[in-house]
Prior knowledge:
By secondary structure, the chain is α+β, with helices and mostly antiparallel strands. 60% of the residues lie in helices and 11% in strands. The protein has helices spanning 2-15, 22-45, 51-64, 69-82, 87-100, 104-126, 132-216, 223-253, 267-271, 277-284, 304-324, 352-355, 369-379, 406-420, 437-469, 474-479, 486-492, 498-501, and strands at residues 291-296, 330-336, 340-347, 383-388, 394-401, 471-473, 516-523, 535-542, 545-553. A five-stranded mixed β-sheet has the order 1-2-3-5-4. Strand 1, helix 11 and strand 2 (330-336) form a beta-alpha-beta unit. Helix 4 packs parallel to helix 6 (104-126) and helix 7 crosses helix 14. The chain starts with a helix and ends with a strand.
Amino acid sequence: MEAIARAWSTAVRTALPGPWRPRRVVGEAVAALLMGALAALLELAAATDLAVPFGLAVAALWLLRRGFPATVLVLTGTLAGWSLGPFPLLVCAGWVAGARIGRVWRLVGAFVLSYLMFSMFGMLKDGASYSPKLIIGLSLGIFLVFAGLPALYSRYRAQRRALLDALRERNDQLVRERAMVVHQARLRERHRIAQDMHDSLGHQLALISVHSGALEVDRTLSDRQREAVGVLRQAAVAAMRELREVVGVLHDESTAVPPAVVGAPGAAGSRGGVDGIEGLVESSRAPGTVVELCVEGERRPLAAAVDHAAYRIVQEALTNAHKHAPGAPIAVALRYEPDALVVEVTNPRAPELVGARSGAGPVVSGGQGLTGLRERARLVGGMVHAGPTPEQGFRLAAVLPYEGAEAEGAAALTAEEEWAAGGLPPVDGGQDGRRRPALGCAAGVGAVTLIVAGLVAWGVVAFVRGASDSTVRQSVYDQIRVGDSRGEVLKQLPPGNDFFTSDFQSAGPPRPEDSHCRWYSLAKEGQGDSWSDDHVARFCFKGGVLVEKVEYTSKG
């Protein structure tokens, strides 16, 4: 029972898709009653006995049109081919099918099948009275106008609505992505600020601490001066500690976001490049500290990002050497290899005297220096190696390519900056090939219009030809004699057309028994060839011979 109940519930939901709010229930019920009543009235106007069955069938199909649009279209075409009552429902069924049947070939198949049923039942009903060509042509034109055109327009509206919804969703997605990129751009800028603070301010504070530590042990200073220098050194150490904390906070808030590539023209020159390394060495030469600079190889032009990275690597290495090995000699080497610039900074173990001076305190380190250097080198296509030496010293070496990855990084940064500034990302090239519903529906309307126009032209030609085929001249009528053979008479008469002469058969004098008659519109001399005159010529045959030729006036 539960399975039957579930199957029944599924069938009902499929046939009558919701949601069924009270207002919609009332609207659908009223519309079904109106459609059924209209179909019944049309059947009564056509003087048929199918008013009630057709009214009920139309009301039921109206309720099922959303759940089974293809089936309702086929059934409505079948009923409309037999009678006039379901024609209003045919318009609605075509509209709903065009909007709700998604696949094109399924929609085309439903319309083709519906038309075949429409024309077939029309032929079964009126095939005895009219020619098949006339029924097929008229049924095609009527079906295209009453079902095809509403389907095309409804499909255009549905596809346009779907396209607008898709564009609206894509716009919302772009807005969200833009907000994310803006946030990432802010994090990148925070990371860059943190890196610059670490590299530049940290280096200067380290120099202040080293110089003040050297002055603190100078014997030529008085106790008051030495105390002031100690206060200065402690202030520098405290400033370094606070700087490390701030840099750590900035780094933590920009986790997993790589620093921005510095590749703008002039950036390296304003902050110092390879040309500024000599100034770093000079400023690092504190009393008791020896710093040597060695440049080997033929100097080569460097990309801006590579030039800046070399400067920052030397700066960070000197800062670490002053912090962890104060007083130890430092060697800085720049070697221009054939394919890359090698930057190397080495220092031996710190002297015991300087390392053991009183009040030195713990070394302040944020743990971000070497990580930042490796990231800088990676962004320009290089690498950094840092580690202890066999002599218990420390060595930092970097290999930086001459060209680097500046162009790619700068281009990426420019695109991100433009996006973050408020611009939208470029539209995917595949969107240019998107199918436009207006073009497809316009093509469909044009095809239907051409078909209908062709059918109208064909109908006009067929009408004129049928009128000519059903008209006999007075002179021809007079030449025919009773008693002539059927073959001789038919050679003189036109082919005939029951569509134009069907009303003549119920008028006129009684026909001879067991005879077969043919009716024609009689064109009187001087009245033209008009088939619309009420003058009728009837020829009756029996036994292969013309037994009667009569002329009369039709009253119908």
